[in-house]
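[job 0412] stage=complex_fold ligand=pyridoxal-5'-phosphate status=START
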Amino acid sequence: MTSRLVPEAPAAGFATNQVQHGFTPGAAHRTAVPAIHQTAAYEFASLAEAADLFALRKPGIIYSRNASPTQTILEERVAALEGGASAVAVASGQAAVAVTILALAGRGGHVVAANQLYGGTVDLLQDTLDDFGISVTFVDQDDADAWRAAITPQTRLLFAESVANPIAQVLDIRLVADIAHEAGVPLVIDNTVGTPYLVRPGEHGADFVVHSATKFLAGHGTSLGGVVIDQGSFDFGAEPERWPQFTRPFPRFGDLVLWERFGIGLAFAVLVKSKYVHDLGPSLSPFNAWQILQGIETLDLRVGRQSASALTIARHLAQHPAVAQVHHPGLTGNQWHELAQRYLPRGVPSVFSFDIAQDDADAADDIGRVAQVIDGLEVFRLVANIGDARSIVAHPASMTHSHLSSGQLSAAGISPSTIRVSVGLEDPADLIADLDRALAPLIPTRSAADREDVRHYA
Ligand SMILES: *Cc1c(COP(=O)(O)O)cnc(C)c1O
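[job 0412] stage=complex_fold status=DONE, emitting structure tokens
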């Protein structure tokens, strides 16, 4: 195996890595901060060098579809934060999930995935990847027997989110990783909601970690991006017949065998870049890579503050007479509270949801009541995003998860009266006052005086 493209993480703390890792001032003008390399292509020193780069004989950057120096810093930094060996950054989280599954599943491959997934991932798995001959079985992520029973000889990966949304189910990562490894396949974890500050799935057995960097990694809601991290733990050489994309000669590179040339921790990234990103083109722009790097520098500060605010708000909502249920695993009594304590010792993510109380006299009008609450909010914004500095609210059943069947919705724990929140960086008192104001008309007691009382409920 050759040296890794990604250096070992320095013996530095999380915050030092999130601000500095992967960037060494010293290029051209010694910029103190990573520069935006806004160029489509890179000049070769000679034709011999060009030939070496095209044949993967030498590492280097040819064209911005595959890489840019700004993107490389982002990849190294996210790999360091996740404790991984290498990473590939792409145009969106959706692209990161897609290229990861394409690279692992191959033709005719099968995926076992959790029921509790981001709606876009469900669409990708059951619709677009189906067109490519890749099939999927969805299982309840808490049901170990269901995971085992769904695995077939064609299964090439297990897929789940560390913390799902909107219900905030916490995955028992170790349990599912062990099931994957017994079957000789890797576990892929979408850690978008978890973030490497709160949980590093690789430490619990996950082999690949994907992110929508659009969300918490960037944190500012300005730029799309995605990253896949190879933890360097899965050995595709152990069963070479099962993984021909790594172990057989790759004709486009003069019959190079990726596993022999690049090995564990790097071959996957080379395959993703040189085949899937190269051929399909979901490239990250240097500008967006730079934007995401700016966001990552404050990841721990933001996520720590957002998680603390979210827990305060969840506790408040749990006492509120217009709220039937709060789905926040930081609350005692929540079904995933113990898993949260095990996997999320620094705090639970700030994306959670609550169900507004039903009106027994008018059960049919749940949607009207949800609309009344959402349209009554002034500080929370109705936006299809999470992880932003701004607090955001969404209605999964008619927005992010509207493509799911009613069976899939209930399997994911979502009801028509479920409202998702993503708590931002505003003052928690303002956020609580906003929710109280919007929920006040729903309080079962119809007298205005009582309503006023509850508005100041704390
Ligand atoms: C948003 C999101 C994605 C998709 O990411 P984009 O950057 O929007 O393409 C994937 N997984 C999860 C959990 C997400 O929240």
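The longest strand covers residues 155-161.
[job 0412] exit 0
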